[in-house]
Amino acid sequence: MIKLLSKIVMLSVFASFSIVKSQSVKEVLKQNGTFRKDMTFAIKSDSKETYLPVTIIKGKEKGPVFSIVAGIHGYEYPPIIAVQELLKEIKPENIKGSLVIIPIANVESFQKRTPFINPLDGKNLNNIFPGLQNGSPTEQIAYLITKEIISNSDIFLDIHGGDANEDLLPFVCFYNREDNLEKTKLALKLSEASGMKNIVSYPYHLKPSDVSKYAFKEATQKGITALSIEAGKLGTVQNESVHLIKSSVYRMLKFSGNYTGKIPKTNVAEIQTFFNDQNYVRVPENGIFYSTLKSGDSVKTNQILGYITDEFGNKKQDIVSEVNGTILYKIGTPPVNKGETLFCIGYTK
Description:
Helices cover about 25% and strands about 30% of the residues. It has helices at about 1-15, 25-30, 75-90, 105-110, 135-150, 180-195, 215-220, 240-255, and strands spanning about 20, 35-45, 50-60, 65-70, 100, 115-120, 125, 155-160, 165-170, 170-175, 200-205, 225-230, 275, 275-280, 285-290, 300, 305-310, 315-320, 325-330, 335, 340-345.
């Protein structure tokens, strides 16, 4: 009896959310009707196999294609859990246009609890866009996201958080592409609509032939309205970060016209802070890092941010700020390695 009930439950799940393997995202988006479809794209490189999960939710009326990606770094849990909750809550009848959602882009990183990289090939997914069709598993994932998701999007949202060692201030960000002002202005308006307190604008200097490396930079390079949410830190699930991500996504979807249902009532920042430049403090040498500062703290030029010691406790050097600004994110654990970003300090010119 229990086995029979289990089979019935499984059949009902598959009936509600069909698994599609052979169709492209573009083909599914062309289909008529209001529906949700869950898809998997198989990835194989030599003897290494993985997959890319994708959900498409299509509404009855026409509207933009709004794509949402979580889990490019599988150890950044708040974005992944927030998107899991969104998948449970959003119904096709409340959608205008289409949502294309990648719930976990880097499945192997997530399942193996691996910060930054994919354990199948040791590569950082957010450092190899646009990817390669016949490359390593991570390169193929980047290629699929570029080909199947970014290329079919009107708006592209990449959600991140602080990885295992990152202490991070929540913010929403976009690239200031001055030769595509219409899309850049829309990215700014979506950022403002998110209700998040901190808005970050990154400079954009890519030529058409340059490699983008990052997912939402690839979308920006392709002329698509693209932005990213950063929330969560130090490789744990904070409920407040999950809630912040969800409420920000709902407000963006409402602003874009993609969501017609009621959005949860949440507090919106009365005053938003805008940072249009960043100073990156690199780790000068390997060692153990000490600092009393945390993300969100204000710093001043020539202020000592912390110091590095060797394994015997001998102080090697101080770390000094070069600007006045606010710590957007920093390494929040003791070990540091030469060349890593120790601090990212946001400021306004």
